Amino acid sequence: DAGVIQSPRHEVTEMGQEVTLRCKPISGHDYLFWYRQTMMRGLELLIYFNNNVPIDDSGMPEDRFSAKMPNASFSTLKIQPSEPRDSAVYFCASSFRLAGAYNEQFFGPGTRLTVL
Amino acid sequence: EDQVTQSPEALRLQEGESSSLNCSYTVSGLRGLFWYRQDPGKGPEFLFTLYSAGEEKEKERLKATLTKKESFLHITAPKPEDSATYLCAVQAANDYKLSFGAGTTVTVRA
Questions:
Q1: What pLDDT, on a 0 to 100 scale, did the predictor assign at position B28?
Q2: Across-strand partners of B72?
Q3: Kindly report the CA angle at A59 between A42 and B21, in degrees rounded to 5?
Q4: Per the CB 3.0–4.6 Å rule, which of A10, A63, B101, B102 could disulfide with A42?
Q5: Residue B41, exposed/middle/buried by CB under 10 A (0-12, 13-18, 19+)?
Q6: Are the beta carbons of B44 and A50 separated by less than 8 Å?
Q7: Would you say A67 and A47 are in contact if contact means Cβ atoms under 8 Å apart?
Q8: If you average pLDDT over residues B78-106, what whole number do you get?
Protein backbone atom coordinates (compact mmCIF):
# COMPACT_ATOMS: atom_id res chain seq x y z
CA ASP A 1 0.00 0.00 0.00
CA ALA A 2 1.24 3.50 -0.77
CA GLY A 3 0.24 4.82 2.64
CA VAL A 4 -1.62 8.06 3.23
CA ILE A 5 -1.15 10.41 0.28
CA GLN A 6 -1.28 14.18 0.62
CA SER A 7 -1.07 16.92 -1.97
CA PRO A 8 0.41 19.33 -2.52
CA ARG A 9 3.54 18.76 -0.42
CA HIS A 10 4.31 22.46 -0.34
CA GLU A 11 2.01 25.43 -0.85
CA VAL A 12 2.94 29.09 -0.85
CA THR A 13 0.12 31.57 -1.18
CA GLU A 14 -0.75 35.15 -0.43
CA MET A 15 -2.99 36.32 2.35
CA GLY A 16 -6.63 36.28 1.33
CA GLN A 17 -6.30 33.46 -1.16
CA GLU A 18 -8.17 30.18 -0.93
CA VAL A 19 -6.11 27.10 -0.12
CA THR A 20 -7.21 23.49 -0.63
CA LEU A 21 -5.28 20.58 0.84
CA ARG A 22 -6.00 17.04 -0.30
CA CYS A 23 -5.74 13.63 1.30
CA LYS A 24 -6.18 10.03 0.17
CA PRO A 25 -6.36 7.65 3.16
CA ILE A 26 -5.16 4.07 3.22
CA SER A 27 -7.64 1.79 1.49
CA GLY A 28 -9.96 0.11 3.96
CA HIS A 29 -9.47 2.66 6.71
CA ASP A 30 -12.70 4.13 8.02
CA TYR A 31 -11.31 6.96 10.16
CA LEU A 32 -9.63 10.07 8.76
CA PHE A 33 -8.00 12.84 10.77
CA TRP A 34 -6.68 16.30 9.91
CA TYR A 35 -3.93 17.75 12.14
CA ARG A 36 -1.95 20.97 12.15
CA GLN A 37 1.62 21.18 13.49
CA THR A 38 3.43 24.35 14.52
CA MET A 39 6.44 25.01 16.70
CA MET A 40 4.33 26.96 19.18
CA ARG A 41 1.33 24.63 19.53
CA GLY A 42 2.69 21.25 18.48
CA LEU A 43 0.40 18.72 16.81
CA GLU A 44 -3.28 19.67 17.08
CA LEU A 45 -6.29 17.74 15.86
CA LEU A 46 -8.54 19.85 13.66
CA ILE A 47 -11.30 17.42 12.68
CA TYR A 48 -11.92 13.72 12.19
CA PHE A 49 -14.32 11.63 10.13
CA ASN A 50 -15.73 8.14 10.54
CA ASN A 51 -17.19 6.50 7.44
CA ASN A 52 -17.05 9.88 5.67
CA VAL A 53 -19.09 11.62 8.39
CA PRO A 54 -17.52 14.41 10.48
CA ILE A 55 -17.47 13.32 14.12
CA ASP A 56 -15.58 16.05 15.95
CA ASP A 57 -14.68 19.42 14.47
CA SER A 58 -14.03 21.19 17.76
CA GLY A 59 -10.40 21.76 16.78
CA MET A 60 -11.21 23.74 13.66
CA PRO A 61 -9.92 27.21 14.53
CA GLU A 62 -12.63 29.29 12.90
CA ASP A 63 -15.13 29.49 10.09
CA ARG A 64 -12.40 30.10 7.56
CA PHE A 65 -11.57 26.40 7.83
CA SER A 66 -13.76 23.69 6.36
CA ALA A 67 -13.26 19.99 5.65
CA LYS A 68 -15.13 17.50 3.52
CA MET A 69 -14.97 13.81 2.81
CA PRO A 70 -17.12 13.09 -0.25
CA ASN A 71 -16.10 9.43 -0.36
CA ALA A 72 -13.97 6.87 1.43
CA SER A 73 -10.87 7.61 -0.59
CA PHE A 74 -10.70 11.40 -0.60
CA SER A 75 -10.84 14.34 1.79
CA THR A 76 -10.13 18.05 1.51
CA LEU A 77 -9.26 20.76 4.00
CA LYS A 78 -10.02 24.25 2.76
CA ILE A 79 -8.95 27.60 4.16
CA GLN A 80 -10.75 30.65 2.81
CA PRO A 81 -9.49 33.33 3.15
CA SER A 82 -6.01 32.32 4.27
CA GLU A 83 -4.01 34.36 6.79
CA PRO A 84 -0.28 34.35 7.69
CA ARG A 85 -1.06 32.70 11.04
CA ASP A 86 -2.36 29.66 9.16
CA SER A 87 1.22 28.86 8.12
CA ALA A 88 1.96 25.37 9.44
CA VAL A 89 2.39 21.77 8.39
CA TYR A 90 -0.95 20.04 7.88
CA PHE A 91 -1.09 16.28 8.30
CA CYS A 92 -3.74 13.81 7.32
CA ALA A 93 -3.92 10.45 9.10
CA SER A 94 -6.12 7.40 8.79
CA SER A 95 -6.91 4.31 10.84
CA PHE A 96 -9.46 1.55 11.16
CA ARG A 97 -11.47 -0.12 13.86
CA LEU A 98 -11.72 -3.90 13.83
CA ALA A 99 -13.63 -6.09 16.27
CA GLY A 100 -13.87 -3.28 18.79
CA ALA A 101 -10.14 -2.56 18.83
CA TYR A 102 -8.88 0.94 18.09
CA ASN A 103 -5.80 0.84 15.96
CA GLU A 104 -2.96 3.25 15.48
CA GLN A 105 -3.18 6.20 13.14
CA PHE A 106 -1.02 6.26 10.03
CA PHE A 107 0.16 9.71 9.03
CA GLY A 108 0.79 11.16 5.61
CA PRO A 109 3.92 13.16 4.71
CA GLY A 110 2.17 16.49 5.36
CA THR A 111 1.60 19.69 3.42
CA ARG A 112 3.78 22.64 4.39
CA LEU A 113 1.66 25.77 3.98
CA THR A 114 3.18 29.23 3.90
CA VAL A 115 0.84 32.22 3.74
CA LEU A 116 2.62 35.46 2.89
CA GLU B 1 -9.40 18.18 29.05
CA ASP B 2 -6.69 15.62 28.29
CA GLN B 3 -3.16 16.81 29.00
CA VAL B 4 0.14 15.32 27.91
CA THR B 5 3.50 16.67 29.09
CA GLN B 6 6.78 15.37 27.73
CA SER B 7 10.23 15.87 29.22
CA PRO B 8 12.88 16.78 28.53
CA GLU B 9 12.23 18.99 25.49
CA ALA B 10 15.58 18.01 24.02
CA LEU B 11 18.11 15.29 24.74
CA ARG B 12 21.63 15.05 23.38
CA LEU B 13 23.26 11.64 23.75
CA GLN B 14 26.53 10.08 22.83
CA GLU B 15 26.26 6.89 20.80
CA GLY B 16 25.78 4.02 23.25
CA GLU B 17 24.63 6.27 26.10
CA SER B 18 21.27 4.93 27.28
CA SER B 19 18.56 7.28 28.52
CA SER B 20 14.81 7.66 29.11
CA LEU B 21 12.09 10.01 27.92
CA ASN B 22 9.09 10.82 30.09
CA CYS B 23 5.44 11.32 29.18
CA SER B 24 3.08 12.43 31.97
CA TYR B 25 -0.60 12.41 31.22
CA THR B 26 -4.01 13.34 32.58
CA VAL B 27 -6.99 11.74 30.90
CA SER B 28 -10.48 10.74 31.90
CA GLY B 29 -10.14 7.00 31.45
CA LEU B 30 -7.23 5.86 29.34
CA ARG B 31 -8.00 3.75 26.29
CA GLY B 32 -4.42 3.78 25.04
CA LEU B 33 -1.10 5.61 25.13
CA PHE B 34 0.78 5.89 21.85
CA TRP B 35 4.40 6.59 21.02
CA TYR B 36 5.37 7.97 17.62
CA ARG B 37 8.69 8.90 16.05
CA GLN B 38 8.93 11.90 13.74
CA ASP B 39 11.88 12.64 11.46
CA PRO B 40 12.41 16.15 10.07
CA GLY B 41 10.09 16.88 7.14
CA LYS B 42 8.06 13.71 7.63
CA GLY B 43 4.85 12.62 9.30
CA PRO B 44 4.84 10.81 12.66
CA GLU B 45 5.57 7.10 12.45
CA PHE B 46 3.86 4.73 14.86
CA LEU B 47 6.03 2.89 17.40
CA PHE B 48 3.93 1.45 20.25
CA THR B 49 0.53 1.36 21.89
CA LEU B 50 0.22 0.66 25.63
CA TYR B 51 -3.17 -0.06 27.16
CA SER B 52 -2.77 -0.75 30.87
CA ALA B 53 -0.44 0.03 33.74
CA GLY B 54 2.45 -2.39 33.95
CA GLU B 55 2.49 -3.10 30.24
CA GLU B 56 5.81 -2.99 28.39
CA LYS B 57 6.67 -3.18 24.69
CA GLU B 58 10.00 -3.36 22.92
CA LYS B 59 11.26 -2.68 19.43
CA GLU B 60 14.97 -2.88 18.69
CA ARG B 61 16.67 -0.39 21.05
CA LEU B 62 13.39 1.11 22.27
CA LYS B 63 11.28 -0.03 25.22
CA ALA B 64 8.08 1.66 26.36
CA THR B 65 6.52 1.26 29.79
CA LEU B 66 3.29 2.53 31.32
CA THR B 67 2.08 3.45 34.80
CA LYS B 68 -1.20 5.06 35.84
CA LYS B 69 0.20 8.56 35.44
CA GLU B 70 3.15 8.35 33.05
CA SER B 71 4.98 6.45 30.39
CA PHE B 72 8.68 6.09 29.73
CA LEU B 73 10.47 5.46 26.48
CA HIS B 74 13.85 3.89 27.21
CA ILE B 75 16.53 4.08 24.53
CA THR B 76 19.25 1.48 25.08
CA ALA B 77 22.67 1.97 23.49
CA PRO B 78 21.33 4.48 20.96
CA LYS B 79 22.76 4.94 17.48
CA PRO B 80 22.77 8.12 15.35
CA GLU B 81 19.82 6.76 13.37
CA ASP B 82 17.73 6.97 16.56
CA SER B 83 17.91 10.76 16.30
CA ALA B 84 14.34 12.04 15.91
CA THR B 85 11.51 13.70 17.76
CA TYR B 86 9.53 11.27 19.88
CA LEU B 87 5.87 12.09 20.42
CA CYS B 88 3.55 10.71 23.07
CA ALA B 89 -0.24 10.77 22.70
CA VAL B 90 -3.22 9.59 24.74
CA GLN B 91 -6.63 8.37 23.71
CA ALA B 92 -9.47 8.69 26.18
CA ALA B 93 -11.91 5.89 26.79
CA ASN B 94 -14.85 7.92 25.57
CA ASP B 95 -13.23 9.23 22.41
CA TYR B 96 -11.24 8.25 19.39
CA LYS B 97 -9.00 11.26 18.90
CA LEU B 98 -5.38 11.50 20.06
CA SER B 99 -4.02 14.30 22.25
CA PHE B 100 -0.31 14.78 21.62
CA GLY B 101 2.50 16.07 23.80
CA ALA B 102 5.02 18.58 22.48
CA GLY B 103 7.64 15.90 21.93
CA THR B 104 11.24 15.22 22.93
CA THR B 105 13.91 15.82 20.30
CA VAL B 106 16.70 13.27 20.63
CA THR B 107 20.08 13.82 19.01
CA VAL B 108 22.59 10.96 19.11
CA ARG B 109 26.18 11.84 18.26
CA ALA B 110 28.57 9.26 16.85
A1: 86
A2: B22, B65
A3: 30
A4: B102
A5: exposed
A6: no
A7: yes
A8: 93
Q: Are strands B70-75 and B19-26 parallel, antiparallel or unpaired?
A: antiparallel
Distance CA B87, CA B103 (A): 4
Task: Examine residue A109 and say whether the peptide bond preceding it is cis (omega within 30 degrees of 0).
Answer: no
Q: Which residues of A touch B46 (CB under 8 A)?
A: 104-106
Per residue in A31-70, pLDDT (tens digit) is 999 999 999 999 999 999 999 999 999 999 889 999 999 9
Is a pLDDT exceeding 70 seen at residue A106?
yes
Of the candidates A72, A104, A105, the one whose C-alpha atom is nearest the C-alpha of residue A91 is: A105
Across the interface, do A91 and B44 touch by the CB < 8 Å criterion?
yes
Mutant choice from A43, A48, A55, A96 vs B, greatest count of B C-beta within 10 A: A43
Beta pairing class for B104-109 and B10-14: parallel
* B96: confidence class by pLDDT, cuts 50, 70, 90: confident
Q: Residue B100 CA to chain centroid, in angstroms?
A: 10
Q: What value, to the nearest 5°, has the Cα angle with vertex A33 and ends A30 and A35?
A: 170
Half-sphere exposure of A87 (CA within 13 A, CB side): 11
Angle (nearest 5°) at CA B100 between B94 and B104: 150
What does the pLDDT average to over A8-30?
Answer: 96
Cα A94 from Cα A106, distance rounded (Å) = 5
